[in-house]
Amino acid sequence: MLGFIADAAELDLPELYSTELLTGLQGLVRSTWVAYQDIDHDAKEFVDFNGVGPDEGEPGPEVYLLLGPCPTQEHRARTGDLAAVRNSDLIDVRGWHQLPLYRDYFRPANVEYILDLGLSAGADRIRSLVFMRASGEKDFSERDRAVVELLTPHLRNLERTAHLRELVRRSVCHAQRYQRESATGEDVGLGFSALTRREHEIVELVASGSTNAEIATALWVSPSTVKKHLEHIYAKLGVRRRAAVVAAHYAPAPLAGADWSEPGA
Description:
Residues 188-255 form the HTH luxR-type domain. With 265 residues, the chain is of the alpha+beta class.
C-alpha cells in the first residue's frame, strides 16, 4: 500500500482518478475492473466516470441508469454511509441474480462481485470507487475490505493535493492568457493546457465527429453534462462554436489575432 500511495502522490495530473491511478488500485486490491463514478442520484445521470479492465461489451450507462440503482448505490443514498461495502453484504446471491440490473447489465459484462468505497460528495451526489470481479473468481474478502478502508484518509489527501495543483495550473494559465492578450489585444483563450482530462477526451471525440449523445455514451455521462463541458471548453479556448474547437484541435497554436469565432457571431 505504501508503494501505491507514493506512486499516486507523484501523479501530476489535472484529475486524480486517472487511468494510471485506477490501474494502481487494480493491482493493490486484485480486481478484474476498477471504476471511479460520480452519480447525480436525483437526476439519475453520471457526472463523471472512468474505469480500467477488460472490455466485456457492457450494455452502456443508459441501461445501468434505467435498471439501477445497484444495491451499493441504493445503500449509500439511503444511509449516507461511506464505509466500504460488498454487494454480498447487502443482498444474497439469489436476490442479486434476480435483479434486472444483474440479468441485463452485470451478467452480460461478466461482473459477479462488487466492493464499493464511498467518497465524500454533496447531498444529491454519490461518488465511489468500485472494485469488481468476474464470475468464477472469489468474492472480496474482509482483508480486501480493510485495505480499501485504509485508503480513505490517503485518498482525501490526494484529492486535496490534486485540487491545489489544479488551482495553481489555472492561475498560471490565466496569467499566460493575460500576457498574450496584453501583447496582441485579442481574446486568445486559455489554450489546451487549461483543459481537464475529461475536457481533452471530449475535444478528441468532437474532432472525430461524435455527437453529444455519442460522447455521453462513450464517457458514461449525460448529454447535459457533455453540453456543460463544451461550454467550459469554449470559454477556455476562446471560441464560440463546435467547429472552432475542431479547428483549434488540429491547429492548437493559431497565429496571434486569429479569429476562431463563427462569421457574423
